[in-house]
């Protein structure tokens, strides 16, 4: 449904995206977990045609590109960006905003009240935006995008300003929307939350996707041991740790477990119990751990 083909973007000598190649299909939530300044917004801007890449192209539904005006209109009809809170009109009501987006994208006009209800907005949505709190504004931004009902949605920090119960509410909506067949890109700093609704999580570094975490097929378990660098060095001297282990953030050793034959598993359990004083952690790796792995040294980021 959406392909990024060898996208490169540089601002002077700052190469922000470097031959980025990626495709996604309907019914997927693509999470993007990356520290500030790694190029998430730039990537969204290229997808939305706010920014022309130096190289490469974006292709929608296997045929539409930002080449002709006709194609652009087709793409814009199927694409929305989560509005920014700063873009809201203070003297208009929430309902006005939701209707505006529904009209502009020819979206769910009939379903506006159900969107309001499902996001618990009924008690405030007819008041002017200037009376709203941060969380109320953020739910409105989400409701506007939901009302536009486009097939592709780009969301930068969708959970911005939301409390725990609203994070959970929006997470449920994202899952519902992917079952409706939407393709959604969600950049978020709430890493563990991404594992709840994302299908794949991309890790951007140096302008490239350095890792793609497949959340749905994540059944490989690891024995996890908290070890400082000296303990880690001693450990790998003493034990024959498989090469494909991870040592994350100079604190966490993850030894592949489920891929080992049973006798080796037993042996590693005994070793782990010896080190961790009878506590055993055997689990999968989540977005948070990959984040620590790839961004432990973030000094390369320029801003
Ligand atoms: N218009 C611009 N001119 C010059 N440099 C830019 C421009 N836009 C972005 N950059 C630079 O590109 C890099 C990536 O910026 P971008 O906004 O894409 O990052 P981000 O991952 O979205 O960050 P954040 O999480 O802070 O929003 C940064 O080094 C930034 O300074």
UniProtKB/TrEMBL annotation:
Leader peptide range in chain numbering: none
ABC transporter domain sequence ranges: 2-231
GO molecular function: ATP binding; ATP hydrolysis activity
Pfam families tied to this protein: ABC_tran
Coiled coil found in the keyword field: no
Cited SMART domains: AAA
Keywords linked to the UniProt accession: ATP-binding, Nucleotide-binding, Transport
UniProt xrefs under InterPro entries: AAA+_ATPase, ABC_transporter-like_ATP-bd, ABC_Transporter_VariousFunc, P-loop_NTPase
Superkingdom of origin organism: Bacteria
SUPFAM superfamilies: P-loop containing nucleoside triphosphate hydrolases (SSF52540)
Nucleotide-binding is among the record's keywords: yes
Protein's name in the database: ABC transporter ATP-binding protein
């Amino acid at each position: 449904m959406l392909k990024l083909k060898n996208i490169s973007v540089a601002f002077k000598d700052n190469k922000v995206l470097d031959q980025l190649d990626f495709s996604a299909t309907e019914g997927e939530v693509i999470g993007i977990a990356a520290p500030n300044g790694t190029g998430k917004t730039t990537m969204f801007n290229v997808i939305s045609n706010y920014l022309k890449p130096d190289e490469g192209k974006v292709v929608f539904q296997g045929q539409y590109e930002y080449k002709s005006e006709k194609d652009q209109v087709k793409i814009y009809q199927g694409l929305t960006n989560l509005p920014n809170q700063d873009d809201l009109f203070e003297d208009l009501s929430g309902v006005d905003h939701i209707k505006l987006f529904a009209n502009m994208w020819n979206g769910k006009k009939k379903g506006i009240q159900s969107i309001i209800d499902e996001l618990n907005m009924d008690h405030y949505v007819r008041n002017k935006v200037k009376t709203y709190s941060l969380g109320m504004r953020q739910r409105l931004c989400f409701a506007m995008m939901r009302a536009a009902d486009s097939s592709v949605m780009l969301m930068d920090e969708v959970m911005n300003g939301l409390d725990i119960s609203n994070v959970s509410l929006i997470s449920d909506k994202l899952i519902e929307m992917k079952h409706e067949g939407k393709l959604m890109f969600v950049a978020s700093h709430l890493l563990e939350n991404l594992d709840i609704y994302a299908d794949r999580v991309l890790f951007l570094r140096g302008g490239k996707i350095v890792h793609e975490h497949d959340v749905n097929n994540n059944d490989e378990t690891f024995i996890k041991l908290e070890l400082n660098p000296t303990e880690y060095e001693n450990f790998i001297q003493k034990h024959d740790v498989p090469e494909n282990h991870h040592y994350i953030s100079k604190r966490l050793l993850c030894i592949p477990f489920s891929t080992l034959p049973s006798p080796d598993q037993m042996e590693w359990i005994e070793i782990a119990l010896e080190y961790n004083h009878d506590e055993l952690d055997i689990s999968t790796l989540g977005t948070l751990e990959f984040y620590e792995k790839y961004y432990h040294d973030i000094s390369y980021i320029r801003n």
